[in-house]
Amino acid sequence: MKLPPLSFVVLDTETTGFIPRVNRVIEFAAVRIEGGKLVSEYEQLISIPTEIPPTVQVLTRIKPEALKGKPVFDDVRETIESFIGPSTLIIGQNVSFDMRMLKGEGIDLTDHPWIDTSMLASLVYPELASFSLSYVSNVLKLKHEPVHRAMGDVNATLELLSKCWKRFLELPKELQNVSNLIMSKSAPGYRMFFDTLEEPKSKTQPKWMKITSPKVSAKVHVSPLAQAIFEKPAEGSVTLVEEPLASTTLQQLLDTALNDESTTHWIAVKNLETTLRRLTVPQGVRVLYPPNFLIDIEAATCFATQEIFTADESTLALKLAWFEPENLRGIRIHGEEYSVWNGKLACTSASENYTKQFEDLPTVILLDHKQLLSFLSDPNHRAHDALNERTHIIIDDASMLEDTATKAYGWFCSLDHIRAGAEGNGALMSFADALQIWIEKARQEKDVYELHREDLSKPEVSGLKERLSTVLDEGGLAASLLEQLLDLQKILDSEKCAGRLVWIEERQDGTQFLHSVPERISEILAENLYSKFATTLLIPHKSAATLTEILPSSQTTTVLESSETELDHLPLAFDDKSIESFLRKPLGDRTIILLPSRRLIEESFINLTEELEEKGITLICQNLSGGLERMQAEFTAAPTPCVWLMTPWTYEGVSLDPEMVDHLVLQSLPFDHPQNMTFAKRSDHYQNGFMEYGLPRLEHRLFRLLRTFCRHRTSDGGVTVLDKRLTEKKYGERVKNYLEQFMQQAKEMPAPKKRKMKPKKTAKVMPEDQLTLF
Q: What is the DSSP string of 322-377?
């Protein structure tokens, strides 16, 4: 194992949670490396005066009895400090977390140089789908022992460092020079690391810089559906086309649209990124990326000339120099680099790199809902030069249009993005501090707090508005940051919030946001879209009469019912089995189980993880196994059988390869949460909010869940629905009838077949001149 010729300590902690001083360190492990050689190691369990949360006991396998008789942290603090040593380089996976937790225990490592191996891996392993230690250990076959414990993480981190070092040594002179230039401005730990790189031996770009990614080749099912969708509606009318459950509809649209030269088809999808992952985009189709997917060249030029970089800024700068991406999909952004991208680099709707996409448009354009709706409401947007009598707007997944329009017409501000953009700007950083103080005071310790006119009329808000005006007047702000600050200015203005919902949100990880959205959107859609352009909405089966939040009662519509094929049905069963039975005996290699709450997922994790592990069953759980991308990666790479627990709302955003999942289990009907602010307010628009609004939204969601499953189910993959309300509640019969229309005629669920999968991959050729910015 070859390591950098440095002296450093690799460390890891196991903790009872994520908040320093509130949560405690229960295990510390570290190894000391000198001159590239391991010289000593240290590990210690640590007693705490509080209980170990059940989830932590399962994650770490550290039980209360294991801490009996162990020293408290005060007794080992000096030993740990002595082992680390003064000014020692510290290396770890997501090491800033460990440093924060140790600081909470009285060991302040702030002045030590440090390196995060997950960031190094994101630089030299761009082909990986995730950079979590568990996934990387699985894919790269790292020595991750003992499993679940701090020393196991240390061993895996050390081996990951070695593998990263090996790849850094493959850089040719030109790339190493630009790396050294950028990292000379970085945090001390990264400067030390790059200063020790050996003289380059390679003269060519390493193979790993040619990023590979799965490529889906869709087999288009020929039908008259696509041609019917392309028939432009009469002026002032909206065509509603019932979308089949089959997953090839959008591919048909892209392929068929190229044959129609008389019309410019703007095809809007809910999520452009996941759409591009699963489709083959034909030549001649223009993909319009949203502003935040593109780099603002002027902002990037300014960014490249910074005299000092934070650690996250430097790794992102290096990726920009190495790969010179055309958009966000061209590099693997990781961790807090997202805040840097959004705060300092991303385009706005006025950025040249965004608006030039609208030049010389072809007859088929692919974009997302939010982007389309945003520029339709802005008469000065460059897109209006191309919107004319030849325009036909097709909105896929229109049952989501209410939610995407709510976001498109919303105002949004992230405190983290402000702070990332405030690096080096004292006035803005001071304003961010004042804003956070007000947020903490206003929200009254609530995760979601609705702001009313009286909240926005208080003197402290007036003071914030004055300080914000000063910051805006000073200028010099990155385009994406400026956009959020202008949204914040509107949010804080009580006069501009009439007819809108305004609230503060604090998420589980402590990040804070301000939101404002219109309460009613159907009239906005009618004004900006339906009255001006030929519009076709692709909707779920038999939903034409239930889209009242996006279609005003006065809107003229024409409904086109799609003809069913064998692809629009799947094995679907109703059962009263327990979730535990599907966990203990999964149906097939890969199963997804949808539970209605994080609490139920957590209970299953606590009660069954260790039992299932003994049986060789891998369990992946939302909120306990990382973010969505990490869970997708681990689900794909995990030993089988593997079961993934998540909520239905998360599942709608899942993107997996075809022929991946054997079984989908829906434990509970996924109604909107009655306390969701937007849902609750809009329910009041109806005489019977549940029957006229809540139940239709449930049916739309069920359709989307089944369609998501069809995109990655195996040929015999089936669905089981367990909710007793289907038979016990009066409305249950309606919901069951809705689901049964998608059911295969087969009486029994077929047994899934065993299979081995090898996803196809294609290489993305990187540009030859990669170093222009730097």
A: HH--SSGGGS---TTHHHHIIIIIB--TT-HHHHGGGTT--SEEEEEHHHHHHHHT
